[in-house]
Amino acid sequence: MDKIREINKSFGKLDVLVNVSIDFPHGKTTCILGPSGCGKTTLLNIISGLWAEDSGNIYGFQGDIAYVFQEDRLIPWKNIEDNLRFVLRGKINKMEMDNIIDKYLKLVSLEEYKRYYPSQLSGGMRQRINILRAFIYPSNLIIMDEPFKSLDINTKQVLIDFCKFLREIYEKTCIIVTHDIDEAILLGHRIVILTDKPTTVKKIIEIEEQDNWIRLRTEIEREFTA
Amino acid sequence: MDKIREINKSFGKLDVLVNVSIDFPHGKTTCILGPSGCGKTTLLNIISGLWAEDSGNIYGFQGDIAYVFQEDRLIPWKNIEDNLRFVLRGKINKMEMDNIIDKYLKLVSLEEYKRYYPSQLSGGMRQRINILRAFIYPSNLIIMDEPFKSLDINTKQVLIDFCKFLREIYEKTCIIVTHDIDEAILLGHRIVILTDKPTTVKKIIEIEEQDNWIRLRTEIEREFTA
Amino acid sequence: TNTQTVLKEERTIKFYFQDGAPALTVAKLLEDNPSLSPYIHIEYEMEKSPDLLVTRILKEEADIAIVPSNLAATAYNKGLPYKIAGTATWGSFYLTSTEDIRGYGDLKGKEIYSFGKGLTPDLVLRYVLSENGIDPDKDVNINYLNAASEVGPMFLSGKTNLALLAEPLLTTVMMKKSDAKVILDLNEEWSKAADVKNGFPQASIIIKNELIDEDWEFVDKFLDAYEGSRLWAEENLEDLSLLAEEQGIGVLKETIEKGIIWNNLESFHIKDCKGEYEAYYNAIMDFEPEFIGGEHPDEGIYLQR
Amino acid sequence: MKGYTSKGKWHVTISIALTICIYMILSWVVGDEIILPTVRSIIENIVDIGKGPSFLRILGSSLYRSLWGFTISFLLAIVLAIISGVYGPIYYLISPTIKFLNSVPIIAIILLALIWLNSEMVPMFVGFVMVFPILFETVLKSIVNIDSNLMEMARVYKVKNFYIIKDIYMPSIYMGLMNILPSSIGLNLKMVISGEVLSQPKYAIGSNLQLQKMYLNTSGVFAWIVIILILGKVLEYLMRGLMRWIKLEK
Amino acid sequence: MKGYTSKGKWHVTISIALTICIYMILSWVVGDEIILPTVRSIIENIVDIGKGPSFLRILGSSLYRSLWGFTISFLLAIVLAIISGVYGPIYYLISPTIKFLNSVPIIAIILLALIWLNSEMVPMFVGFVMVFPILFETVLKSIVNIDSNLMEMARVYKVKNFYIIKDIYMPSIYMGLMNILPSSIGLNLKMVISGEVLSQPKYAIGSNLQLQKMYLNTSGVFAWIVIILILGKVLEYLMRGLMRWIKLEK
Ligand SMILES: Nc1ncnc2c1ncn2[C@@H]1O[C@H](COP(=O)(O)OP(=O)(O)OP(=O)(O)O)[C@@H](O)[C@H]1O
Ligand SMILES: Nc1ncnc2c1ncn2[C@@H]1O[C@H](COP(=O)(O)OP(=O)(O)OP(=O)(O)O)[C@@H](O)[C@H]1O
Ligand SMILES: [Mg+2]
Ligand SMILES: [Mg+2]
Question: Could you give the CA distance from residue A145 to residue A143 in angstroms, rounded to a whole number?
Fold first, then answer.
């Protein structure tokens, strides 16, 4: 079990995270919901080791991490194929790399855009590459910051299915930040709801197979409006 | 009535828009739905005069235009107050400007972040400024490219209400691109559904007050899966 | 001296001199390259820039060299092992004008373009002017340029019509500007003012102590041969111009052939012109002692022949 | 580079001390005042020079030439580059002259410079010829590289050209120039002093430097170098102050 | 700047022609071969110089010095700047020397340079002293300004340092250098030629330029200037070719 304990983080006088403790069971998906600006991205950055927490402890999170950033973070001077290659080199052998890139690109209907540069793509297309980069990267943990925004319902469905497929096959642990309650219920084994700043954990909901969708939805919505 | 007729646009060998004709009635809201990468942003850029169409005609669209871009397009070296000022100077007098900026910032709960630079804000906060910039700008036409992504449900609700308020008070014409069908039904007087590339208009749905939500939703979803 | 002869090994010595007039005095010697000693072979090196010549002396790479006379004194005062053997070229600065200027009185209130502020040209001009009742700071306005070669174009272009020019540049200028005339030969004026015979020693030939101690015979022969080369240069202008072209000396053929490059070629040996050096160094001591390393060099600087 | 500031001061002090130590050892090994003078004699020379009657006037004159020259290069570069950046054909009209300035060694046109200009102006001209093309290119490239997304945004919102220049162009140019300003100010001072060597104005660091060199007084040359280094430092501070004053610094 | 290319060629030709016309008129008005020689006599001189037996050798030698010197400055600047950019303290250790090179007029240390180095090396040294600080600062600033979002991305995905340098640092440095490369190559050639004037190597443009100046042959000076301009152009093409070869050009 990966977990964080009593994490605090502030920017200057602005307290963002206050004593945040969350468990992330292996192979399970944890969805994080919370108001805009409450510190979700900050939390992900701390978990992935990019930013330092002010205090608190982080246990586990060994091994490689894949991260779907909130912005696409594609390298502007590389075409999308090379953008994917960039994170794969040294981890997969050359031949396999070409295969897998083609396969994944086809999946999101971008196989014709291999040689396009990020500036020549639409916002949704860039976001798909951002997601692919994380899916294609061999890792135990996938962190996703609002991955399915800017996507039309069909594409979104394809990617959600693929995400489920991956996590089942490879038993990946997932952490997903989203603003879409349906998405959270659909994908998450656990849903963590955060308060507004100074941010603490407001509620953790474990989702069982037999749970009623409508009931869950109302429960979560109530947390938000409360 | 503003309208576009037989618009064509391609990038190199890639045909994006093919004979697209749409009417945009004054004071009404037109929502545009379509698969990711089909050319919605391209269409908005052509309407706003930023990009040139390859052929076709554009009628109307006189007067000032406000545009919520798909990316936030904030000036990195200006704080958010100055980012808003940037588009207002010369259009509103100084005193009024301060007032209105404060009022609008308060509306989206960002009044404390006036002096923050874009890099110090969360993605959702930046998007709120992107939207505010368009709302605050005196215009007849507001163009919005996926405006409510990255926002939590409360903030989204506030902004949707405010959008409705503005368009009623000032009789603004709105063009909204979205991937969220509920949003489209909620906000639009007309819904334009585009095909995938080469992109044409697939269907135009006029929404009447008495229309049944569920029926509309299913109708639109059917267009997508078809 | 017998024991010395036994010890001698064959070796190569280096003779450095600067392009321009000094190089012309060496041209014949270089061409003939007479064998002056069975043991010593001379390598001739012409340097184009004064800075390079200076470094040859500083690094004591030169065994024989033709250098500005002030540099000879500076080197001596800084403890470098060189002695002055004779004067290679005498002063050759000329005040030149297109105007009709007769006598020093006419210079009052004029603007003069000169060069080498704080150096020999400046010294000579100021000395001569002040000895003739002109205050160089008040009565005239002297504008300085860095190098002699910068003054020529100024004068040719008419930006100034009163300038200090040095040979061989002067001849070149006169060829290009017909209405220019020399109004003062500063070497002559210096002789009068300082009460010496030959004017001021512009460039001197210096020899390394080691060489003098080791092989006096060779040095003696060399000085004679060099003197011969100087005299030949004065008398065989056409041949000299051909030699100069061959050796890459940076003086125009026509300039050499006009042949007014020389002053006082007869006076060479140091023993005949110690007075001139004393006068020159004295004047410098009044002007700017730093220019010769801070003090008047003692007798030891002169080669005793 | 931030965050080092306090540690940075240390490093600077240590590394300057180290550099001086190495020099002292070197000059001791060489043991020749003409090739590498001792630190002691350099300091003595600095004191002597500092005591000289017209010392401040010499410094002031060179500084004045340098500042003026730089200001002119700077303003001209900005104005011309903005014009060229905004209106392409102008670029092609200006570029041969820039190319010329960029390629022709100053030594080659110094003759003409001396004839055209007076000895006060020549050093500025020398600095200008060196620095102007660098500044011009930097400004031009900053303009050409401006984020086109931001420009589109400004166009849609019909922001006045004045504000586009002030709020988008200027900061971009500023950031581009920041990369090159310190070294080009140094370069300019260097070239002005070289120009002074050639044109020998009455009060000038270059004239004095040349004199020490002709006198083979290497300690004097080093003393002037040290003075120039300090002057360069002062220029840098002035520049920083100015930049803070313009309040463009984040 | 794209999109002008075909129109651009026109503008260049026209503006060069215009510049030459203006010069012709000027030289006709002045009517003095020494101040502004006529185009005719300049061309005659170029032909004469071109016919000289060692013309190609002269060009080649200067070009060789220039290219070598630049390559050294360039590589050293990149290596040192990457080290300084990545590891802060090193920056503070290197910076006094950079500052020194940046501030000290070459004229001041030319005597020493002549003592330390042979006359072939001095021109390179002169170029180095001018160009190295500019390149170093540019590279350093490009590194410091790299988009931190991209760096975070690379770190999360544990991309090897080699690839981070190759795929993020290098292109950023490349884009930073693009702004300054053409003018610094020009600057370097200029400075190498000035160095040649001072150190007078046997085969060198600088030595010949100086000779023409000594002869008061202004047309000869202009002829050499024109040759230098052409050489600069050739250098630029070589550079472009090289860049295309590195395939970093988009
Ligand atoms: N500058 C460009 N150069 C080449 N192709 C481009 C360029 N801009 C857009 N395109 C192409 O045009 C098509 C439509 O792009 P557009 O951004 O309009 O899509 P969109 O409908 O807004 O998609 P999304 O919902 O993902 O934002 C895409 O296939 C894209 O690759
Ligand atoms: N570099 C920074 N400097 C100062 N404040 C920062 C910085 N980064 C983030 N913040 C602040 O931290 C808070 C949380 O930011 P964060 O990006 O984590 O929010 P979020 O929960 O991801 O929001 P969103 O849903 O809008 O993406 C915000 O108030 C933001 O202003
Ligand atoms: Mg976020
Ligand atoms: Mg789009």
Answer: 7
Q: How far apart are CA B126 and CA B71, in angstroms?
A: 9
Beginning with the edge strand found earlier in the chain, give each strand of the sheet holding B141-145 in spatial order: B65-68, B141-145, B173-177, B29-33, B190-194, B201-206
Q: What rounded mean pLDDT belongs to chain E?
A: 82
Taking CA atoms only, the protein residue closest to ligand 1 atom 28 is B37
Selection from B140, B136, B138 nearest residue B60 by Cα: B140
How far away, in angstroms, is B31 Cα from ligand 2 center? 31
Taking all residues of chain D, what is their mean pLDDT, rounded to a whole number? Answer: 82
Query: Would the CB of B42 count as within 6 Å of ligand 1?
Result: yes
Instruction: Compare all CA atoms of chain E with the CA of D98 and give the residue at the minimum distance.
Output: E183
Chain B neighbors (3+ CB pairs < 8 Å): A, D
Which chain E residues are Cβ-neighbours of A133 within 8 angstroms?
157
- Measured from CB, residues less than 6 Å from any atom of ligand 2 are A 11, 14, 16, 34, 36-42, 70; B 116, 120-125, 150
The pLDDT of A111-125, averaged and rounded, is: 92
pLDDT of residue B11: 92
DSSP chain C: -HHHHHH---EEEEEEEETTHHHHHHHHHHHH-----SSEEEEEEEESSHHHHHHHHHTT--SEEEEEHHHHHHHHHTT--EEEEEEEEE--EEEEESS---TGGGGTT-EEEEE-TTSHHHHHHHHHHHHTT--TTTTSEEEEESSHHHHHHHHHTTS-SEEEEETTHHHHHHHH-TT-EEEEEHHHHHHHHHT-SS--EEEEEEEEHHHHHH-HHHHHHHHHHHHHHHHHHHH-HHHHHHHHHHHT-SS-HHHHHH----S-TT--BGGG-HHHHHHHHHHHHHH-GGGGTTS---GGGBPP-
Residue numbers of chain B with a pLDDT score lower than 50:
none
- Cβ atoms of C68 and C166 within 8 Å: the answer is no
- Ligand with smallest separation from the Cα of B37: 1
Q: How far apart are CA E35 and CA E27, in angstroms?
A: 8
Give the residues across from B11 on adjacent strands. Answer: B14
Q: In 3-state terms, what secondary structure has residue B190?
A: strand
Tell me what pLDDT residue C7 has.
Answer: 57
Say which of C52, C58, C153 has its CB closest to residue E34: C153
DSSP code for B38:
S
Q: What tens digit of pLDDT does each residue of B97-137 get? A: 999 999 999 988 899 999 999 999 999 999 999 999 999 99
Q: How far is CA E75 from CA C177, D183, D193, E126, in A?
A: 52, 18, 29, 17
- Which CATH architecture fits D37-249? Orthogonal Bundle (1.10)
Distance B31 CA to ligand 4 centre (A): 14
Domain boundaries, chain D: 1-30, 37-249
Low-confidence winner among A100-109, C17-26, D7-16, D81-90 (lowest mean pLDDT): D7-16
Q: Does the C-beta of A124 come closer than 6 Å to ligand 1? A: yes
Predicted local distance difference test score (pLDDT) of residue A143: 94
Task: Give residue A37 CA to ligand 3 midpoint distance, Å.
Answer: 7
**Residue C156: closest C-alpha in chain E:** E34
pLDDT score of E5: 44
The list of chain D residues with pLDDT below 50 reads 1-6, 249-250
Lowest mean pLDDT among A194-198, C234-238, E177-181: E177-181
Residues of chain E with Cβ-Cβ distance to A81 below 8 Å are: none
On the question of pLDDT at C28 being above 80, the answer is: yes
pLDDT for the residue D2:
36
CB pairs under 8 A between B and D: 44
Provide DSSP, E92-152. Answer: HHHHHHHHHHHHS-HHHHHHHHHHHS-TTHHHHHHHHHHHHHHHHHHHHHHHHTS-HHHHH
